[in-house]
Design brief:
Blueprint (H helix, E strand, L loop, with lengths): L14 H33 L2 E9 L2 H6 L1 E4 L3 E4 L5 H8 L4 E7 L12
Antiparallel strand pairs: 1-2, 1-4, 2-3
């Protein structure tokens, strides 16, 4: 040996093969981690596209006749008399309700779940 041997191969390939394989493994690990983080951040971003309010429904008699209902201090709703929403709000007058507002991903008909 002339002292110029930098690494032994022992039949497992040259040191250059080892470094290429190591770089590929490291690149695959980084790419997997990046995709995982992007997926988690997108999942959390969709959670921020909604809000939930717990409010007390109230209205004076003359407001109820016209369809005006106060939802706590934050909102007032106008419901057309005779509709399902109007009947629901009339029944809930004086009670607390939870209101969830979220982006509609596709057009759909309104419905009240009981």
């Amino acid at each position: 040996m002339n002292g110029h041997v930098l690494a032994r191969t022992d039949g497992a390939g040259t040191p250059a093969d080892w470094s290429v394989r190591g770089v590929r493994i490291a690149l695959a690990a980084c790419l997997t981690l990046a995709l995982l983080l992007v997926g988690l951040s997108l999942g959390r971003a969709s959670d921020r596209d909604e809000t939930t309010l717990t409010v007390q429904v109230s209205s004076a008699d003359h407001e109820q006749e016209e369809g005006y209902f106060s939802l706590g201090d934050n909102a007032t709703v106008l419901a057309k008399p005779g509709t399902d929403l109007y009947r629901f709000l009339t029944r809930q007058r004086g009670h607390k309700v939870r209101v969830v507002l979220q982006e509609a991903t596709r057009p759909e008909l309104s419905k009240l779940e009981r």
